[in-house]
Here is the input.
Amino acid sequence: MTSGPSFALRPAPHVIPVTSVPQVMRRVLLALLPATVVYVVVFGWGLLINMAVAIVFALGAEALVLRARRRPIAPSLADASAAVTAILLAFALPPLAPWWLPAIGAATAIVVAKHLYGGLGGNPFNPAMVGYVVLLISFPTEMTQWLPPAGTIEPDLQLGLAAQLSFAIAGLLPAGTGIDAITQATPLDQIKEGLGEMLTITEIRNGALYGALGGRGWEWINAAAAAGGIYLLIRGVIRWHIPVAMIAAIAICAATMHTLDSSRFLSSTFHVFSGATLLGAFFIATDPVTAAATPKGRLIYGAGIGFLTFAIRTWGGYPDGIAFAVLLMNATVPMIDRYTRPRIYGRD
Amino acid sequence: MDSEETPRTPTVESSAVLDMGVIEGRVSRGRGVVLRAHKRSSTSAPLESAPLPNEIVLPLESGLSAQSIRPEVRSGQRVLRGQPLVSGGGPLATWTHASTSGVIRSLETHPVGEARRRQALCAMLEVDGDDEPWSGLEPPDLSQWDTPDALAMAMSRAGLAGLGGAVFPAGVKLAATWRRATRLVVINGVECEPYISCDDMLMRTSPREVIAGALVLVELTGAEAGVVAIEADKPEAHEALEREIGALGAADRLSLVVVPVVYPAGGERQLIEILTGNQVPSLVRPTDIGYLCQNVGTAVALCRFLQTGEPLISRITTVTGTGVLRQRNLEVRFGTRVADVVTACGGYNAPVVKLIMGGSMMGIPLESDVVPVTRSTNCIVAATEQELPEAEDVQPCIRCGDCAAVCPAYLQPQELFRLAGQDRSSSLDQFGLFDCIECGCCDVVCPSHIPLTESFRTEKQRFVKALSFEARKQWIDSREELRRERIQRWETTHGTRVVAGNEQQAIQHRLAAVTDVIARLNRLPEPVEA
Here is the structure.
């Protein structure tokens, strides 16, 4: 009997996957680039400072927790998932923020929302949104001081990179500038206040903060987010169900109420192109770990986020509702998945 | 990332329905993945016969018949080509025959390349090179195939088993159709595994026998329609089959249907769904509800057996992978060692890290090349590290759902995998563990590189092992009960009926039609090579 050479016994399939978690995360980062660029054009350098701080603290927190859990650190840092969390959180923060705001948010997102639930893949709640909501509830003042979009403010009042950095690090503003002089509410915030003062939508929208589609500047950030989202769809990183269902739900709710009373309810276009709608639809609601996993379930999950976002914006206590809507729907995912299980081949 | 294979998720298109027993319109796309094919490297060389080796290793028992078959040869005995080496056994016992002439050196336990066992009792045959045929071979007397058992037994004793890879006794499957009306016979020439091209080569080189064998199966089952299904990437085979359908005047009984290039469109249940729009109920066999699916190789083997009485002693094997010098298809006598087959292809060409019997998606990894080629050896892949590298590190599941999107059984592999670690047997059954066909699609799309298919294979074994003898019996009984219920429901909704009273007459009529097909085939002039 001939005794031949010996070969590897790894079982079938022998073809290895072409995608990987780091690749998925890299594509998400790439898809966020257009929205980042537009955001910086509209609101200045603050986003990049927030991102930098959030990334440093997210990766630091990830490394510390992994060390405490005695898990290998390098592969988890390399998968870029913590960076994606940090960047999405930074998008949700005011562009002019003290450094500890993104720092606390990022650390909370990674330590509490992610690793206390078992790390990547184990967390039921979207970490970036948990971080955001913790900040919103703990530091309401800092979280609602928004900068006016470019073009609505006198150029000498606009803060450069150096001024924003000095505020972020030391809380110092250029001499003679007060925080109230340079910050103001977001469009959704202002509309909520205006409606409370019995102004009509048309009256409010005459202000400088509004563009043709939604909040001035915000509409372009949303459009850029959608462009990135379409790239993700084409690349197969996300599937269409969640964004389509979410946008459709917001649009249908808004259109219905707008038709009933256009003086008190915003149009569907305004809803879709304001606040974090499209960023949320393509980047936050689609986080696979915390979203429903079945096609039908994703439609329900997306529609639920859309409806809750509309309800919170319209009747709730907060101007934007994406974060709360996402977290509420996160909690329903196990039930949604259970009741939308696809029929197995050949089963009744 | 530039990779050898580029899977993507196909969309599910509308499916054609089996309308009055005739396939019409477009076929559905089916679920699965599109993999980059590696077929041209083996189909560009002409089909040749592998030289007879010095020694041949013939496993004496197939997995299904281990208890009932007896070896009929002893050391030192001379045997001739086609001579059975065993006797006994029922319809499930596929006999082994000497694949050439020579002297039996010994009967011993020898490594084999099978999924369920590593070793089997084998006859070691010292080849004498004369290739002298056994005198006992004559075309079978069809008038004796008058019961399902007689038919199944005759075919199993000729060594006829499904050549698609699962090697289930072909006669047993065929005999099952005599208990019910058959709506559709599917001759499976899909061959969706990216490395395998043996069926393609068979259809190119023996199209007449493919069509004749298909006709035989249609006649034997009395089916309303017959379909030869072939993947869209085999134009040469398609053309050859089309020509022979004309030559044999089979157009009213058989149609050629092109199915999309999607893995695993060639899976029996997947193919039936693609062709008819109907899913075969879980636990129910296709033959229970009027579908017979046979591989093209099986059709040819049956046709040759009816023509000459020769049992199945060889098959076409694809020898491929960049680790072998000349990639090609070879007609290989059963029992030829993989090492000898590789030598016939010029030997190993580069450091081979992996030797696979079967394709890259479902093939069995071989530890060594001393194992023999058998009926199930449709392919041998000698892969270099570059070609089929080790997967990267496994990461946690991120619930992306890509596995569920491609699963041809419509399972949720991510949920099954989550449950697999938890020892929750009832949930596993409910989530379809045993509906998994182990095609490997989920592994190929998993961004976390989780070995899903292997975990399901292990879990199936663990599930069955964990049951006590009583519980196992109960479990099997409950599945049988479910099967019967589902067949009954199918019959009421789809109108498949049990064969009516004049069974004998119907069978005699079918056998006469088969005789006529073979007579027609024998009358045809030899095809002129283009």
About this structure: Chain B touches chain A through 81 residues (CB under 8 Å). Chain B is about 30% helix and 15% strand.
